[in-house]
Automatic annotation (TrEMBL):
Residues 1-19 form the signal peptide. This is Extracellular solute-binding protein. Keywords: Signal, Transport. Belongs to the bacterial solute-binding protein 1 family. SUPFAM superfamilies: Periplasmic binding protein-like II. It comes from Oceanobacillus kapialis.
Length: 426
């Protein structure tokens, strides 16, 4: 009897062990996946929520479908105005609608890190080597990387091919051409340098700088040093000599410049890729090139904006969210996005592709200019730069102040605002 009971008990144990190793184990196995280093990935979510730029969702669909096919994770995307991403994350970050992945411009990195919205990522050198160095650096903050590049933009040299058959090597040459146009109803080169975004390239090329360190030390502001004064003196002469018409200053400056160029009354302008189609639609046969060098031989270090993909801190799916960021930003998917949206991916392979460069003049020029461009500082203190610097340039351009005096006053105000609004300097 005892033997029979013992055998029965053993059989029950065996059945229990087999049951424990049944469908539940298979489910757990299906819910995990191994990483390339052999470690086990986190549990696979059913879906990832992605916040995409407004009117750009169609460019995400192909990559989303491929990702779902490869990993079995559905991508659910929503479109928002990219300038409002931080505001939307503040509203929905702790709700079921919170995103796993967002797209933002790089100048939102610092504020988003400070507010705890986005998480640092670690990717291999093979992944990073796909992109230009400057575009990757745009997503670094306090020693960590927070995103991968999606698109880049920066002002370039746009010219009327009927009026300028060959791109000058230096701004000195275009300066002389502008002088020749004086006392006529035409202009040579035009730029809205009273706006610091567009003037930054001149300051940087002469040796001025916004913040020290890696553009993240707000205790070191280089906008009133000797080189910055020299830069503003250079800008000043374009206004003093009438090479820029009086209307190209203040709120209407952009409209005035674009109007003259589209009427065929200006040889060339400094503007960004957002203006290409507008000029073409006006019937101008435009050529596009990197900015000619400054008189000192240095490149014009234009401000560069980089859009990217970021993993948020709102969900527990960060490992899979990063997989999607790497996937959607890879070379194949970035090329598809460019074809559908015109957004220019900062891919090294495209710059090295002579056929692509010849067939995509504007995009190639933006990418080439990006090599010497400077990513706008992404620290929160950057918000205090714009108004004082614009005011300084405009007072000089209108003859109300001299460069040294105007810049010293601007930097003093910037420091005061940083102290007041950000609790001091870094």
């Amino acid at each position: 009897m005892k033997k029979w009971i013992g055998a029965l008990f053993a059989l029950v144990l065996i059945i229990g062990v087999l049951a424990a190793c049944g469908p539940e184990d298979e489910t757990e196995e299906a819910a995990t996946e191994s990483n390339s280093d052999g470690s086990e990935s986190a549990d696979k979510p059913e879906k990832l929520i992605v916040w995409e730029d407004q009117d750009k969702g169609a460019a995400l669909e192909d990559a989303a479908a491929k990702f779902e096919e490869e990993y079995g994770i559905k991508i659910e995307y929503q479109e928002y105005n990219i300038t409002e991403m931080q505001e939307n994350m503040a509203l929905d970050g702790n709700t079921e609608s919170a995103p796993d992945v967002v797209t933002m411009s790089h100048d939102g990195v610092g504020p988003s890190v400070v507010k705890g919205y986005i998480a640092p990522i670690e990717v291999s050198e093979d992944v990073l080597s796909q992109y230009t160095e400057s575009s990757v650096e745009a997503f670094e903050y306090e020693g960590n990387l927070y995103g991968l590049p999606k698109a880049t933009e920066t002002p370039v040299f746009i010219y009327n091919k009927e009026l300028l058959p060959e791109v000058p090597e230096t701004l000195d040459e275009i300066y002389e051409l502008s002088q020749e146009k004086l006392n006529s109803d035409e202009y040579g080169f035009l730029a809205i340098w009273d706006d610091f975004y567009h003037a930054h390239g001149i300051f940087h090329g002469f040796g001025g700088y916004v913040f020290g360190g890696n553009n993240d030390d707000s205790s070191d502001i280089g906008l009133d040093n000797e080189q910055a004064v020299e830069a503003l003196e250079y800008i000043q002469k374009w206004y003093d000599e009438g090479l820029f018409p009086s209307g190209i200053i203040g709120e209407t400056s952009n409209d005035q410049m674009n109007g003259l160029f589209k009427q065929g009354k200006a040889v060339a302008v400094q503007n960004g890729p957002w203006a290409f189609n507008d000029y073409r639609d006006a019937g101008i046969d435009i050529g596009i090139a990197p900015m000619p060098n400054l008189p000192n031989g240095e490149p014009v270090g234009t401000f560069m904006g980089v859009k990217g993909w970021f993993v948020t801190n709102f969900k527990d799916n960060q490992e899979w969210a990063q997989k999607f960021v790497e996937f959607v930003a890879n070379e194949e998917n970035a090329k598809v996005r460019y074809e559908l949206t015109g957004e220019i991916p900062p891919l090294v392979s495209l710059l090295e592709d002579e056929q692509w460069v010849s067939e995509n003049e504007g995009a190639a020029a933006v990418m080439a200019q990006s090599q010497s461009a400077v990513a706008m500082p992404s620290i929160p203190e950057m918000a205090e730069i714009w108004d004082p610097m614009q005011a300084a340039i405009q007072t000089v351009a209108t003859g109300k102040a001299e460069p040294k005096e105007a810049l010293e006053e601007a930097v003093q105000l910037i420091k005061q605002n940083i102290e007041t609004n950000h609790g001091g300097t870094n």
